[in-house]
């Protein structure tokens, strides 16, 4: 799935209190790309993800996914698109308190009216893969933060989405769980050619991406492409983070 | 800072506060109007019975009304405090003292209560004249209504406002304190599923046994089996109250649990979420749904009983006064004289000779006077006066027995058997209750007999009845009426009972002599429709006014309770709906959840309430001639329609608030 973001902007608040969350951002994400979005808090990472994932509408600009202008779609069509093609891992988990772990994980499949057999199969596969077997009957409230994040990830991935949006997916995980999740994300990116957009603060997490864009004050400030060596890429990301922290300007590619 | 918190709370729950304030204001307005009507000078002067009794009845109703309003305020006022649990606990965590949070709860309640009272009193000031005029119109009193709000009324309202505001504010302060202290474990608080299931089964058994007992009650009330009826009513009271509660508590959640575990159904679309969501919301609102069901049922029963009461009064009136003016041989002379003097425009006049003798009523062997009228004379009477009686042929008997048709043998419930002194026994299934000259003109039974039977009958007393219809009223002056009134109950008959009916004697009585062994039956010597009509109009108009006021207020109160419960979602519930939208559930599907929840919340209580209210049909089963099924259905449909409108408005408001949160 190719994603093209054209000159989108988004303000929050009104008149004098208005905050420019996104200022004229352009971006292209190739089919099967694993894109990282980094930047300081309040830079606009989550807003950018929300706009691309159609959870929010931009004030102006376009988001084209495989040539379809998502900003022109009706709410109902957007919801259908999200349900069928997208998966989400949110910073705040966004799990449903009323449902237990199993019901939370299988929710996207049930919404798509998948067969009972397929639901059960996918659920077994996913819980085994993410090492959360035995949690299925637990209430969401009884889980640790890390467990909640894994469950949220399982929910996002169970439907084999074509695009996966992840907002700080490893923020609440210990290093082992984080590695399992990231490896799985990389696996589906490689094997299934799932396009992944991931917002993160963490350079280690970002080092799994094929490319990282840096957002600051609502604009894309810089980008770093994975040279094929993760350690080197990790260092580049760290350096870029230092640069942003120092306030230096970094040229962005002509495409943007 | 505190004011900002309070302002923010009002803003966040503005829809809910608005509904509560409007419902309270309406109720306070109605109460203030009722209270101000008690000592209204125009009502005192225009309605003779106002000072004597109706003002006290109005005062009594206004006290009852404000009591109900206080129950509502006490109950619903707590919703807002409960809704802020999370917020208050956060304030406490941030270091705000418990006392300060309690003061915030107190001030919020004071503000809401004072605004409600202020708007309520303004409503009363604006609409007092309208409601006063409506009351006079319904009572058929042709006089203008005078707007008046005395200082006494104001002072009373102010005191009630002040004390109630303080009481409710203190109540809510205690609620705040209680919820800050509470630290219950959610899992421990919820009863196990099997307890709910057992409760649910018991609830179903109780509720449906209530329906069976209602059917049995029909028979017992019809057969006047009072002891059994009282036992059955007591059982019904417990069965319906407990059964309904247990169905909400146990059966419906268990049913939803079963659906939720039936993967074939639950794993389909939004069902996976909605069954659990509905169950949680239901379990949280069990008491409220139960409360609304029982009050709706009570309202339906009261409305039906009131209608039946009104119909009884009206039927009584038409039975008692079928002519505009009626006389017998004792009063015919002065009445004719007055009519001539006043140039009354008589449109139709009737005269009928009757014979009175002793008869014995079949079912209870009661000996009483029987007034006979010949078939030919009966046929000459105005059709409107006897239209409610069954049709008879010239050889048939017709027994007129007021309202209640007895039978000689219990196995022949549709046959009246009357023994007549020195005449052959009468057996007939032609039984009526419309006395052609009015029920007050003669005591005991009236029998329409074939002409031959009538000719042969040897009466102990003879009389003649006269009846008139007029073009523009009977034109009797007040003075003439007063004179006639003195003669109203001055004659009748006296029965001296003996072992045998043939030896029982009936004589004319003009002195109400209480001789041992005799029974005196005094007849009315005349009857005037105008006086009775005015009284009936006034009483029924007053009744309609009060019942309508109570019903509308009750409906608004019940509707607003449900609306508020549906509107007031806690943070977790809001978050869940938002999450669903984020992961791809469309707004129209979420709208469907809101719609279904509103439908279930409104439809289930009204179904239970209608089923329970059927008890009223059993209560009036003794009156077979009065068919109440149609009015009962109409009353129910009317209630359901109004209730449905509130449900629809609730759905609109509820969806609006959800949509706002999602956008």
TrEMBL record, chain A:
Key words of the record: ATP-binding, Nucleotide-binding, Transport
Gene Ontology MF terms in the entry: ATP binding
Family label: Belongs to the ABC transporter superfamily.
SMART domains in the record: AAA (SM00382)
Protein name: ABC transporter ATP-binding protein
All copies of domain ABC transporter, residue ranges: 3-242
Record-linked Pfam families: ABC_tran (PF00005)
SUPFAM superfamilies, alphabetized: P-loop containing nucleoside triphosphate hydrolases
The keyword Transmembrane is assigned to this record: no
Highest taxon listed in the record's lineage: Bacteria
Native source species: Companilactobacillus keshanensis
TrEMBL record, chain B:
Protein name: FtsX-like permease family protein
Domain of life of the source: Bacteria
Keywords: Membrane, Transmembrane, Transmembrane helix
Species of the source: Companilactobacillus keshanensis
Database matches in InterPro entries: ABC-4_Integral_Memb_Prot
Cross-referenced PANTHER family: ABC TRANSPORTER PERMEASE, ABC TRANSPORTER PERMEASE-RELATED-RELATED
Spans through the membrane: 17-38, 59-81, 101-127, 156-174, 194-218, 230-251, 288-310, 542-568, 599-621, 633-653
